[in-house]
Fold:
Amino acid sequence: MLLRLLKVLYIISLMFFLLSACSSPALDDYSDVQFELINQNGETVIFPDDFEGAPLVMGFIYTYCPDICSFITANVGKIYEEMDRNDDVQFVLVTFDPQRDTPEVLKSYAQAFDMDRPPFQFLTAEPETIEAFMNRVSVRTQESYTRDLEDGERMYFLNHSDKILLIDQNSRLIFDYGGSMTPVSIILEDLEKL
Amino acid sequence: MKNHFFKLTFIALLIPFFSFCNSASEQETPHFDLPDSGIEIADAWARPGRDNGVSAIYMHVLNGSAETDTLIAFSSPVAGLVELHETYDRGDGMMGMRESEEPYFPARSVVSMQPGGLHVMLMQLNRPLNEGDDVELTLTFSGAGELTITAPVRSPN
Structure:
């Protein structure tokens, strides 16, 4: 009797595991919000309206970040280079340092990474818009190390979340990855499921 | 027989879990042969950076001497400011960065400066650093003296 009960529980667990591996329930839904952002070419884009209809890979960076953000940027680029599907997947990197990351600064940053080209967009906005946007997508920042320069300028660095999001064609958040740490192959596999 | 089947299925279910954990772990340090004496630098490279922006140089520092050495100065013709920094996991979901307070290189050992950890930070770049460029960096150690290296610029990963 006990053995039969254990077998039933085992089969239920197995089915649950297999089902959870095949489906991707949404973690969040951004279809109820609207943010006006600006890309590296100075063009206005609305999130999520302008991105609906195709999957979206979204990373978060600031261009004065010396280490982690360059790997988030490179990972987003690598996902595009290595993906098999030949369709309209969109790739964006949004700054959480709008005071310094103007469209012009984002453009020169994109050029250094050979990503100032479709399908990549680097986005900024007014500081209050970026603050609201980062709150909505749960990206946290905090000023950390600062340095006063000889020319009177103040250089600052930020502690920040390390993440890349995978958003589906209906503006639903499907996966929330460690941006610089998650192997690109895993994100590519998840992208294939959308 | 049935118990054997259950065991095998259970192990098969665990394989993807452990393979994910392994792939997300930190990078491994490659093996290097230490020099007979002094300090050598291996596999130095720099990540791209924009004009007036920042970049970082990564490398392996091989201390072949019998004594701990200390990095006391850095300079690069492409940067107004050069410092040794460390990225660290704050444990609260955020990544942090701090100036390294102990640039010590123990005797007969390798210290790796890798993405997500220790790195030489280049600030106030006076030109863009694009893939294919070279960056010169001069490191001054208290024991080994001055060492100038050339780091190729390449995209991360």
